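Run log // design_07
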């Protein structure tokens, strides 16, 4: 008796041990990079010493807000970004795809439970004799019953399949985060393009006004025989060159308005976008910068690559499980009666239980090939993951370098603008006392306008590179609710 009990306990323990393990490798999250920072050490001295007012500070390890664009302190920008998030068809599609992926996980988990089906049937049959027509008989047969089947997941193939589907659902969630980050980054970029282009148009119009005065003056001087015809042609050529800038700038502005409307899910012809001005934005002076080890846990593209790597790992287990026996248990119970009413009063009961075991023996090497293919796919995903991580680190490094050199360029351009302004003031004083010509005055006005345009472009570049860095860091999407429309 004890021997029988011992065997029962041992059998239960063995079954539990088999049920607790799953074939194939267990997935381990890739180790983050151990680099302390993003920038390589440089022994070269800075070509220009940037002024303190032009520098931006980075705060390593600081947390980035989900609404990262609020670092520009622009209510108009915040309003446009929020409206775009609420109406973006791209986010709606990404949310729906995520919901679909989660339902696929539920479908895969259904294999853990028994399958139960109900069936009902009615049959009429008869037999007749050619020589004795009266001997023909007919009969009715009604049936109703339940059947069940269950495949215990002894070797873990079902668990690996569920794990794979969950990893694919995680991938879709990271794709949603990537779509959110791309959308917000694109909206901010288009708004900055609008503000920058409007300022460039204003400055170009000032240059053209100076060109027109220069041409008019040269024409008058030529008419009285003071200057040669070549001076008139030079002035006219300069005016034409500056005029060619305006169509391109207006094209860029209108296209930015249209792109912003499309990002917000609106038809460009019915969209009304406010005329943004660069003075509406404040440059972020302190930018939170995640460390490399943290970045790989935040960037949506890195997390998506990790989810695909996880799915490839689980796929190995699914392939390996195909080489092991498939055990299936089944049972059924059926009532049969000659009339439908008798199914609940006078009926015959048929029942059956059974089980089956199927062990693959020979499939032409297909099963082993499937396992090898799954392992090769995992290696490919591992290399892809590494490439995505390196690209992410490179993007952050490039943006950090850009901020450093933007500050230097801005310092130089400010100095050039100040020098051009001082030269303009001297020309204005000289012209007022008659010691210089109007042509020199117009040239000084033009030089100042060009210097100011260069300075404005450098300012806008700081805003653009700051936005690029914030999106390269992941944009803090994990601190924002991006799945509001997922269900």
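design_07 sequence
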């Amino acid at each position: 008796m004890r021997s029988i009990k011992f065997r029962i306990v041992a059998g239960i323990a063995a079954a539990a041990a088999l049920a607790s393990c799953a074939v194939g490798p267990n997935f381990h999250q890739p180790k983050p990079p151990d680099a302390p920072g993003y920038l390589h050490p440089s022994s070269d001295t800075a070509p220009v010493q940037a002024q303190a007012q032009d520098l931006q500070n980075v705060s390593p390890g600081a947390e980035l807000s989900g609404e990262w664009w609020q670092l520009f302190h622009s209510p108009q920008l915040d309003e446009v970004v929020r409206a775009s998030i609420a109406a973006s068809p791209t986010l709606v599609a990404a949310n729906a795809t995520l919901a679909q992926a989660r339902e696929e996980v539920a479908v895969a988990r259904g294999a853990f439970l028994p399958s139960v089906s109900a069936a009902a049937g009615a049959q009429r049959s008869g037999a007749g004799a050619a020589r004795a027509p009266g001997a023909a008989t007919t009969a009715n047969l009604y049936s109703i019953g339940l059947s069940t089947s269950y495949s215990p997941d002894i070797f873990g193939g079902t668990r690996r399949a569920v794990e794979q589907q969950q990893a694919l659902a995680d991938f879709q969630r990271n794709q949603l985060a990537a779509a959110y980050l791309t959308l917000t980054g694109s909206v901010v970029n288009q708004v900055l393009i609008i503000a920058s282009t409007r300022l460039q148009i204003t400055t170009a119009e000032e240059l053209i006004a100076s060109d027109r005065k220069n041409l008019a003056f040269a024409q008058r001087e030529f008419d009285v025989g003071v200057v040669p015809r070549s001076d008139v042609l030079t002035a006219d050529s300069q005016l034409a060159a500056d005029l060619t800038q305006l169509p391109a700038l207006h094209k860029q502005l209108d296209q930015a308005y249209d792109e912003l409307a499309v990002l917000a899910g609106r038809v460009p012809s019915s969209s009304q976008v406010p005329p943004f001005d660069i003075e509406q934005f404040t440059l972020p002076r302190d930018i939170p910068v995640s460390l490399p080890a943290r970045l790989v846990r935040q960037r949506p593209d890195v997390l998506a690559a990790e989810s695909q790597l996880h799915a490839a790992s689980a796929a190995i287990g699914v392939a390996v499980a195909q080489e092991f026996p498939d055990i299936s248990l089944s049972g059924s119970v059926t009532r049969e009666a000659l009339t439908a009413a008798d199914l609940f009063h006078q009926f015959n009961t048929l029942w059956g239980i059974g089980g089956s075991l199927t062990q693959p023996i020979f499939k032409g090497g297909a099963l082993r090939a499937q396992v090898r293919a799954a392992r090769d796919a995992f290696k490919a995903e591992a290399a892809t993951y590494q490439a995505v991580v390196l690209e992410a680190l490179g993007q952050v490094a490039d943006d950090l370098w850009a901020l450093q050199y933007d500050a230097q360029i801005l310092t130089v351009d400010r100095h050039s603008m100040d020098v051009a302004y001082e030269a303009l003031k001297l020309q204005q004083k000289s012209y007022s006392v008659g010691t210089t010509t109007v042509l020199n005055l117009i040239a000084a006005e033009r030089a100042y306008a060009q210097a100011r345009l260069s300075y404005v472009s450098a300012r806008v570049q700081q805003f653009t590179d700051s936005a690029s860095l914030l999106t390269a860091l992941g944009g803090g999407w994990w601190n924002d609710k991006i799945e509001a429309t997922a269900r």
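The chain is about 60% helix and 10% strand.
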